[in-house]
């Protein structure tokens, strides 16, 4: 065995990070997510595919809650930076909408078309576009920047952004080293500089309060990422609420996020008061 990371070789790394293989009903669950997302788009007034840049996937959806000066919940989807779209996960907007947030569903260019450097830069461009509010939507309210899995890494990277008042990494990947050593790097082609620059675990600096969530039934490596990140942030004196969700896996944690009375939205509402 050729040890690559924390006692794991390439085969073990795949087992440790393959969320799809770890959950038996992923195909059915994704179809359910997509159906619920379609229903939400039909039921909720929204403006779709607004532009924050010239490339095809540099777009976002705006779902207003109907309250003036409401905070904005920006959600960045996962998919290991190389799969999925905002349309797959739009259903999660039900939770923040029900709690009085306006919602932005963010899209970004995927690998291999985009490098990690470009993907990270696109989130910066999105936040700049929201701050400028060129479309007159009302996006200038205080932003909670949330993201799931790969999106959790992107949300954590911007916890010091001037537009963000709270960050919510969900099942986040905060160290890119094991990603670079696994099959996931076939498309990402991460460079050593990117691993160093874009691993939130390596940049525990001053930033906004966070609510970090993870399912207790997720792969142990995913749980470890969240636990280690929370511990490092707290050691640095940062304000972090850690919210492990009992029995939730990498996908069912999103069912909870979609509920206004769910564990995560209750924790976020409390965290936004700090």
Number of strands: 8
CATH superfamily: Alpha/Beta hydrolase fold, catalytic domain
Biggest sheet descriptor: 8 strands, mixed
Poorly predicted regions: none
**What percent strand?**
15-25%
Given helix and strand content, the structural type is alpha/beta
- The arrangement of helices and strands along the chain is HHHEEEHHEHEHEHHHEHEHH
- Name the helicity range: 40-55%
Q: Quick one: overall form?
A: globular
- Termini distance? 48 Å
Query: In angstroms, what is the radius of gyration?
Result: 17 Å
Q: What is the annotated CATH architecture?
A: 3-Layer(aba) Sandwich
Helices, by number, come to 13
User: Which CATH first-tier class would you pick?
Assistant: Alpha Beta
| Overall tally of structural domains | 1
CATH topology call: Rossmann fold
How are the strands of the largest sheet arranged?
A: 1-2-4-3-5-6-7-8
- Mean pLDDT over the residues: 97
InterPro entries: AB_hydrolase_fold, BD-FAE-like_dom, GDXG_lipolytic_enzyme
Keywords: Hydrolase
GO molecular function: hydrolase activity
Domain BD-FAE-like: 67-158
